[in-house]
Design goal:
By secondary structure, the protein is of the alpha/beta class. The longest helix is centred in the middle third of the chain and has 27 residues. Strand 14, helix 18 and strand 15 form a beta-alpha-beta unit. It has three domains: 187 residues, no CATH class; 210 residues, Rossmann fold; 32 residues, no CATH class. It contains 19 helices and 15 strands. It has a six-stranded mixed beta sheet, sandwiched between helices.
């Protein structure tokens, strides 16, 4: 067994939890190269499901915060964006500032997460070096984008100046030297960024900044360093100033046209040429300025291990195609009858230890009204004692093809009507009949999940059942009742060709993580033949970090599979929380042990 799988972090689980927190659907795509959002859903790259080091995980977390809490909640995706490349790049910068500040108001921890991500990106060299940023051969358009990106992030976003301050200062000096007073005026306009209230405002501010650089052309302007021969015959964009006349020497100071047409002093021909070159930059010549795109490209570069079994790990939800199998129902009834007494006693003991006090009645305690919040039950005079077990339970049942092996035979005892004799008289006593059933591992897994769920429901303990193989299926959600599933023809989907246990645990843990109960328990019923051991180990590790208890009940005696899963359990801190069921009649006792040990 390769225990090196513990170095991976279950980033898919983190992404599911973050997207759920920000009320967006998460879609995992094998074609996506970076995370993105359209306002309703987040597209997450399949290759990012496992992070192979903490730096990569930090950047991935920051991207989800940026996309989901930032763009997803605050960007107007219907706002008209400019087709001019330089304007579009500045729109990205200003919109990122606006949405990250807004996200920080909604979730105070986000600025810290984004600052940590920026620190990693600086270490990786994503924003360049001071030498590169101040190179005289740097294209003017690239220089303008870099200077605006670094200075805006350093000056306006909390915690980022510590990491970007030196680079921002270097790029700002280079921009001031290359563009002269144009940079000073542009930076003055950029000071409005923290006060922007909409995507439309960000787009308008970007256009206003670029408009400063659109100067009347002069025929004898020299080509600035870092610029080629320019675009011959290019037509001016909408809003460009008209052609000017006259000439100026290389060292002669000229003035840009202000909005009212008054020329300003202090701009050299080289600076004019640099401004024109920046405005005319083509899309392929300009760098990315959206933080999500920048960070996404960096993650793909620094993720050392390309996942070889991504197809198996991509979570796929399926719908039920058939009713609960009769063999499950038979075993569930048998198990429920065996469990009812012992498990009820176990839960009764636990419930009695969780006493809480409630208030009810029609009479109000008027003396308390002035100091109680709306909805506080203490406004009533009568106090009652209540008991509750503040626990949520998810049962994860393996229904993959490896669970089809025969596990034993059970007898079902039934009462049959008395047989009639030839004389026409029947015996007064009924006849006890016995029917024998072959039981597979899958029957034990599904039957146990149903039986445990029904007993938990009697004690009003929220429970959910998820079946899994290559894909997963919510057989019963927390909001369903077992009665509502009776008679339905679309409850379960069986016989998957593979066993993605880690993927299924990821789904189950992400759903449990949103529960508000004080204790959360995941019971895994499987033979241990996991097809995604890295994802499995990372799921156990995550559960331990958020105090979700996991009990693993191994069904059958697959030595190799059990050893593989136990190694993942040990790495996650759950080495002792397991049982092995080799015969159907052992199941009740193993379940009781699991409940006693965990709940």
């Amino acid at each position: 067994m390769n225990t090196a799988v513990t170095r991976y972090r279950n980033q898919l689980l983190v992404a599911r939890i973050l997207s759920g927190r920000y009320q967006q659907e998460l879609v995992v795509s094998t074609k996506a190269s970076t995370a993105s959002t359209d306002g309703d859903r987040i597209t997450f790259p399949a290759a990012w499901m496992l992070a192979d080091n903490e730096d990569v995980a930090t950047v991935m977390d920051g991207i989800i915060d940026h996309e989901a809490a930032g763009h997803g909640r605050h960007t107007d995706f219907h706002a008209r964006r400019s087709r001019t490349p330089i304007v579009n790049r500045l729109e990205n910068i200003l919109e990122d500032i606006r949405i990250e500040l807004a996200a920080g108001v909604d979730w105070p921890g986000i600025p810290r997460n984004l600052a940590r991500m920026v620190a990693v990106l600086v270490r990786w060299g994503v924003f360049g070096s001071a030498e590169l940023l101040t190179s005289p051969n740097l294209d003017p358009g690239v220089l303008l984008c870099n200077a605006m990106l670094l200075n805006c992030r350093a000056k306006f976003l909390p915690g980022q100046d510590e990491h970007l301050g030196m680079l921002a200062a270097a790029s700002g000096r280079a921009a001031e030297q290359r563009f002269g007073m144009l940079w000073t005026e542009a930076w003055g306009l950029a000071q409005r960024a923290p006060r922007l209230t909409s995507t439309k405002d960000a787009c308008k501010l970007a256009a206003d900044i670029v408009k400063l650089f659109k100067l009347p052309p002069r025929p004898d302007c020299p080509t600035p360093p870092g610029v080629g021969n320019g675009r011959k015959g290019a037509e001016p964009d909408d809003g460009d100033a008209g052609s000017g006349s006259g000439s100026a020497g290389v060292g002669e100071v000229t003035g840009p046209a202000t909005p009212d047409g008054t020329p300003e002093e202090g701009l050299t021909p080289l600076q004019r040429a640099a401004a024109a070159a920046a405005v005319d930059s083509t899309d392929k010549d300009l760098p990315q300025t959206d933080l999500g795109d920048l960070a996404g490209a960096a993650v793909n570069t620094h993720s050392k291990d390309a996942r070889t079994r991504v197809a198996l790990q991509v979570p796929q939800a399926v719908s039920g195609t058939q009713p609960v199998p009769h063999s499950w129902q038979v075993l569930a009834t048998r198990l429920r009858n065996s469990l009812a007494g012992d498990l009820a006693a176990e839960l009764d003991t636990l419930v009695s230890c969780h006493r809480s006090y409630g208030y009810t009645g029609r009479e109000l305690a008027t003396g308390k009204l002035f100091r109680l919040r709306l909805g506080d039950g203490r406004v009533f005079r009568k106090r009652v004692d209540t008991y509750e077990l503040d626990t949520a339970v998810t049962l994860l049942a393996d229904v993959s093809s490896s669970m089809g092996g025969l596990m034993g035979v059970v007898d079902r005892i039934t009462l049959q009507a008395a047989q009639q004799h030839g004389s026409g008289y029947a015996d007064d006593s009924a006849v006890i009949g016995t029917t024998r059933y072959s039981v597979s591992r899958m029957d034990v897994s599904g039957g146990a999940a149903i039986a445990i769920g029904e007993v938990l429901e009697q004690f009003e303990i929220p429970n959910e059942v998820i079946g899994f193989g290559r894909a997963y299926q919510i057989i019963k959600s927390f909001d369903d009742t077992w009665t509502s599933l009776a008679g339905r023809s679309d409850v379960v989907a069986l016989r998957a060709s593979a066993t993605a246990t880690g993927m299924a645990m990821t789904i189950a843990l992400s759903r449990l993580d949103f529960r508000e109960e004080a204790r959360r328990l995941l019971i895994v019923l499987t033979d241990g033949e996991a097809g995604d051991p890295e994802m499995l180990a990372s799921a156990y590790a995550y559960a331990k970090s958020v105090d979700i208890e996991i009990v693993t009940i191994f069904i059958g005696d697959s030595t190799r599979g059990i050893q593989q899963t136990r190694a993942a359990m040990k790495s996650g801190g759950y080495a002792g929380q397991m049982s092995v069921v080799r015969r159907p009649d052992e199941l009740p006792q193993r379940v009781i042990e699991a409940v006693r040990r965990s709940i």
